[in-house]
Design brief:
Elements: H1 2-14, H2 24-57, H3 61-69, H4 80-88, H5 90-97, H6 101-110, H7 118-130, H8 133-137, H9 141-150
Length: 151
């Protein structure tokens, strides 16, 4: 929301400052809209963070990942061996829940053309942070080739 706001503010106010001279009321109103958008954006993120936590506690791993990463995944499926691992490894599940979203996404982007799936998020995070050998062995070969070629 704030990104769109900045585009409007740049095109209508910054580029034409003289249009705003003497219209303090308009500037205040404009700033009020920006404040409302920032508050709404923060609220949406807080709701999704809370939802992620709720699903983490309920061991609903797919819903937790969707709320945490807030992305359009090419596959909404989560392999049964990953669900079983998370169900049986509460410390690893907690690490995943606490994962730095930006860090994981930056790494996935740096790999190039990696399909954005729930499984791939798990495999990449496991490889970079957790290090569970069984999950590493189960990494799809295409993903393993991409990761190895980038190391």
């Amino acid at each position: 929301m704030s990104e769109g706001w900045h585009e409007v503010e740049h095109d209508l106010r910054y580029k034409f400052k003289e249009d705003w001279d003497g219209a303090d009321w308009a500037s205040r109103a404009f700033n009020g809209v920006f404040a409302a958008l920032e508050t709404s954006e923060w609220t949406m993120l807080k709701i999704l963070d809370d939802q992620s936590y709720y699903h983490y506690k309920m061991k609903n791993w797919k819903a937790m990942l969707r709320a945490k990463f807030r992305l359009r995944f090419s596959s909404q499926n989560l392999s049964s061996y990953i669900e079983e691992w998370l169900n049986n490894s509460p410390e690893d599940a907690k690490k995943l829940y606490r994962a730095d979203r930006g860090q994981i996404l930056s790494y996935i982007v740096s790999l190039g053309k990696v399909p954005l799936t729930l499984d791939n998020i798990i495999h990449v995070y496991n490889m970079k942070v957790i290090g569970n050998e069984e999950i590493m062995k189960a990494m799809p070969k295409y993903l393993e080739r991409i990761v190895i070629s980038r190391v």
